[in-house]
């Protein structure tokens, strides 16, 4: 071994260490996936015992100098911080199992452990409705699960569970007795598919309240309604000593596919300081497109 070989090895190791530190500073940490605990399966009831997951909060540390904003216990935002993610290196797959985003895609930060179904239904707006409804279910408020179709008609889970079914004729929707009462998880999943069929970015945009930039919090979403339109969910928010804020952002997309955490040119945390938020798959979302679904 020549006299400079040990120095070269040390230099290489130092470079690797800097690279890893830079990766973590950008907001990503190596987290070993685990089988869901009983508590996690209660909080995220779609999880199976055989899944391998890591929590969003553990996977994404805030950038250097930032801390997560405080949240009310039991809120939608607090629930999203524990959102289960699939192991690192998982691609985004569509409802037919095809890969739509490679695991190495620079725009992908992580993939959520959330079933997408076998039909082309759970797209962008539907993913947000799904997560919000699942939070209400897990929080013990299934009676408050109700969202609007694009027509403006309310689709209520209690009504569906009681055996009523939506009869859709053009823009007219009526609810009629049509089935045996059933409040099981299987029935709930069928209710969600009905909701996904007739709701979308336009209904989500119209239904959501309009928080100000200063009021923005995890659980809010940006939406530009249309055919097509798009929406992204604010999964977490962190702030620094100057009051500057950054956010983790996730989305479903078309065709129906795995819900996933996005990454931009600076990593998974997106600045909230401009007049808009630029995500990699759509035009920038202006702050005026910020919306919020109601809390229980």
The radius of gyration is 21 Å
The residue fraction in helices comes out at 25-40%
% residues in beta strands = 15-25%
Q: What's the overall average pLDDT, rounded?
A: 91
Tally of discrete structural domains: 1
Q: Would you count the extended β strands for me?
A: 18
Largest sheet: 8 strands, antiparallel
Structural class: alpha+beta
What's the tally of helices? Answer: 8
Principal-axes geometry comes out as globular
**SSE order:** HHEHEHEEEEHEEHEEHHEEEEEEEE
Distance between the termini: 69 Å
Low-confidence stretches: 1-25
Oligomer kind: single chain
Which keywords apply here?
globular, alpha+beta, two-stranded antiparallel ribbon, disordered N terminus, 8-stranded antiparallel β-sheet, 22% strand, 8 helices, 296 residues, single chain
Word description of this protein:
The protein has helices at 5-25, 38-43, 56-59, 76-81, 124-138, 157-161, 185-198, 201-207; strands at residues 54-55, 67-68, 84-85, 92-93, 99-101, 108-111, 146-148, 154-156, 164-169, 172-177, 221-224, 230-239, 245-251, 260-262, 269-271, 276-277, 285-286, 290-291. The protein is an alpha+beta fold and 296 residues long. It has one domain (38-291). Strands 2, 6, 11, 12, 13, 14, 15 and 18 form an 8-stranded antiparallel beta sheet that branches. It has a two-stranded antiparallel sheet with strand order 1-3. The chain has a two-stranded antiparallel ribbon with strand order 4-5. Strand 7 and strand 8 form a beta hairpin. The longest helix is centred in the N-terminal third of the chain and has 21 residues, at 5-25.
């Amino acid at each position: 071994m020549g006299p400079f070989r040990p120095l070269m090895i040390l230099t290489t190791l130092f470079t690797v260490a800097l690279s890893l530190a830079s990766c973590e500073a950008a907001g990503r940490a190596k987290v070993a996936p685990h089988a869901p605990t009983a508590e996690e399966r209660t909080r995220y009831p779609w999880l199976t015992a055989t899944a391998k997951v890591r929590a969003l909060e553990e996977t994404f540390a805030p950038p250097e100098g930032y801390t997560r904003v405080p949240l009310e216990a039991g809120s939608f935002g607090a629930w999203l911080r524990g959102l289960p993610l699939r192991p690192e290196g998982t691609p985004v797959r569509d409802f037919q199992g095809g890969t739509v985003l490679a695991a190495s895609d620079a725009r992908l930060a992580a993939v959520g452990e959330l079933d997408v179904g076998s039909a082309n239904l759970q797209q962008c707006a539907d993913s947000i409705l799904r997560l919000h409804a699942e939070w209400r279910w897990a929080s013990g408020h299934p009676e408050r699960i109700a969202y609007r179709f694009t027509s403006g008609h309310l689709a209520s889970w209690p009504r569906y569970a009681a055996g009523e079914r939506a009869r859709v004729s053009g823009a007219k929707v009526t609810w009629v007795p049509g089935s045996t009462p059933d409040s099981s998880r299987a029935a709930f999943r069928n209710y969600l598919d009905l909701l996904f069929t007739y709701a979308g970015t336009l209904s989500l945009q119209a239904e959501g309240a309009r928080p100000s930039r200063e009021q923005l919090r995890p659980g809010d979403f940006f939406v530009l309604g249309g055919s097509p339109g798009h929406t992204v969910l604010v999964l977490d928010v962190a702030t620094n000593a100057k009051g500057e804020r950054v956010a983790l952002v996730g989305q479903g997309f078309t065709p129906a596919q795995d819900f996933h955490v996005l990454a931009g040119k600076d990593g998974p945390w997106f600045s909230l300081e401009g007049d808009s938020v630029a995500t990699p798959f759509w035009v920038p979302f202006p702050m005026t497109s910020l919306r919020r679904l109601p809390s229980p």
